[in-house]
Amino acid sequence: MNEIYEPKFVEKLFDKMSNSYAKVNYITSFGFSERWRRQCVEEINIEKGKTVVDLMTGMGECWKHILKKSDQNFTLISLDFSTEMIHRAEKNKLKFKNATIEVLKENVFDNSIKNQTADYIISGFGLKTFNNKQLSDLANEIDRILKPNGKFSLIDVSVPKSKFIRPFYMLYLKNIIPILGKMFLGSPETYKMLGIYTQQFVNAKNVHRIFERPNFEVEYITYFYGCASGIKGRKIK
Ligand SMILES: C[S@@+](CC[C@H](N)C(=O)[O-])C[C@H]1O[C@@H](n2cnc3c(N)ncnc32)[C@H](O)[C@@H]1O
């Protein structure tokens, strides 16, 4: 396997970034990351009293969008394998006193979530560090964890198609973000990796192809001229 998709490599990368991730992510996306998380969650109309699973949760950046209607009536199960991200997620939990949030420090490909637990599955920016085999395993896991009729919405940053936006976007991704990474983290290399993953990922069309299965209804979605893309869907049975 190409080293950059090895779980240990990805885990270390996010451990290193955890301290600066929230700031750098917000600044480098001009605040769009927050809007995209909200839009990703809003793609599936989450009803109160249901169980939501947030995969590749990081520090729980998607929680406020998931829990915003009322933080009393949801069960939220969040999973990430980075020790540092999970540590921050545990702290973030304190902001949502009324919600039941379970934080699991686990690899998504070897997790303890029981079959047919979730009414909804969300994942914000957790796709690009997976290769095709892992994306197919992720589809298996989502199929296993979701209840019949359960819904999912997944999003990640993407390379826009437009001839006008694309060159600026690539320059930004490859050169400017590492500089910001150096300013905040002292190392441009770590944030350079996010550019490399995004360049390989391109957009969620490939994820859409992999998730097109007989028991999934799935749709490809783009956000802001294709600067982010994702899929949303439903498990039929
Ligand atoms: C870009 S961050 C996204 C965090 C958050 N969901 C957000 O909206 O910003 C991706 C997260 O996925 C986690 N991750 C990557 N591969 C994973 C795996 N195989 N199992 C569990 N977590 C994983 C990383 O540790 C990292 O925290």
The CATH class is: Alpha Beta
What compounds sit in this structure?
A: S-adenosylmethionine
How many helices? The count is 8
Task: Provide the helix percentage.
Answer: 40-55%
Uncertain runs: none
User: What is the total number of structural domains?
Assistant: 1
H/E series? HHEHEHEEHEHHHEE
Strand content: 15-25%
CATH superfamily: Vaccinia Virus protein VP39
Multimeric state of these chains?
Answer: single chain
Shape: globular
Based on the structure given, which CATH architecture is correct? 3-Layer(aba) Sandwich
Alpha carbon gap, first and last residue: 33 Å
Structural class by sheet pairing and helices: alpha/beta
How many strands appear in the DSSP assignment?
7
Average per-residue pLDDT, rounded, comes to: 91
Radius of gyration: 17 Å
> What is the CATH T-level topology?
Rossmann fold
Walk me through this protein's architecture.
The protein has 237 residues and is of the alpha/beta class. It has a single domain (2-235), classed as Vaccinia Virus protein VP39 (Rossmann fold). It contains 8 helices and 7 strands, in the order H-H-E-H-E-H-E-E-H-E-H-H-H-E-E. The chain has a 7-stranded mixed β-sheet, sandwiched between helices. Helix 1 crosses helix 4, helix 1 (7-28) packs across helix 6 and helix 5 (132-145) packs across helix 8. 39% of the residues are buried. The mean pLDDT is 91. The structure holds S-adenosylmethionine.
